[in-house]
């Protein structure tokens, strides 16, 4: 209860802090989300990527 | 028209007449408030007095065409299905769970906001980066210079991206002189000096001016051998472009 009231009073109550929190979260979300999606892409396309076929192509 | 006798006091409307304030000559008598008492009929008596069975409605000139029911037979819809668990019980104050409910709603809105900000940023980045030069254009816009061709103490002018590029092989004495001149943007680079006059597209003259570097004839700006502005109206140093030395004696600008 104390946590939720602190959260509400400090962030959600004012639009300014709410928007600021959104932007700050978006910054971290972007880094993690992009990294996660790239990792997933590389995992799905394992063996087809240039870094995988580079030794056989360059010989 | 329906007029159940015992419930007429419940169904009556009240009209208030406000006296005309403009009529100041007359004294308005204030009557004592009249106490109206009525007995609440028993549910049985109430149900007897209320219309049931076939109700006929007359419609004629001079008779009211509206039938008002007592609204006692309408059940209030049950919204329990749509309520949050914290406000289902009628015995618990809703203000106790107010903040957690608010937090939930704001958290949902905030998550949407974060997602939208991410999407908007990606979209703008995509569009803006599509305007910049592509990799193949940038690859063509490079210049390779063999450093051995430039004798020491000489400045050679190349044309690069439509602008003059000066590559100067500075002597040790020149380097010492430049290094002894304190500057906030001191170039520690030995070979490459500068490209592009900062004003109006004038081309500076090399090995000229008061400081043995470059001299701009248009406005009389003196630059030293590192391309720094030393004297004259030019507001900025000569620009040093991006460069690299991929191997010994080879310089790539761009």
UniProtKB/TrEMBL annotation, chain A:
Keywords: Electron transport, Membrane, Mitochondrion, Mitochondrion inner membrane, Respiratory chain, Transmembrane, Transmembrane helix, Transport. Pfam families: UCR_UQCRX_QCR9. Its main location: mitochondrion. It is a single-pass membrane protein. InterPro entries: QCR9 (IPR008027), QCR9_sf (IPR036656). It is found in: Mitochondrion inner membrane. Component of the ubiquinol-cytochrome c oxidoreductase, a multisubunit transmembrane complex that is part of the mitochondrial electron transport chain which drives oxidative phosphorylation. The complex plays an important role in the uptake of multiple carbon sources present in different host niches. PANTHER family: CYTOCHROME B-C1 COMPLEX SUBUNIT 9 (PTHR12980:SF0), UBIQUINOL-CYTOCHROME C REDUCTASE COMPLEX, SUBUNIT X (PTHR12980). Belongs to the UQCR10/QCR9 family. Component of the ubiquinol-cytochrome c oxidoreductase (cytochrome b-c1 complex, complex III, CIII), a multisubunit enzyme composed of 3 respiratory subunits cytochrome b, cytochrome c1 and Rieske protein, 2 core protein subunits, and additional low-molecular weight protein subunits. This is Complex III subunit 9. It comes from Molorchus minor.
Automatic annotation (TrEMBL), chain B:
CDD domains: Rieske_cytochrome_bc1. The keyword Transmembrane applies. Residues 142-252 form the Rieske domain. Keywords: 2Fe-2S, Disulfide bond, Iron, Iron-sulfur, Membrane, Metal-binding, Transmembrane, Transmembrane helix. Its cofactor is [2Fe-2S] cluster. The keyword Iron applies. Transmembrane segments: none annotated. Its main location: membrane. It is found in: Membrane. Pfam families: UCR_TM. Belongs to the Rieske iron-sulfur protein family. This is Rieske domain-containing protein.
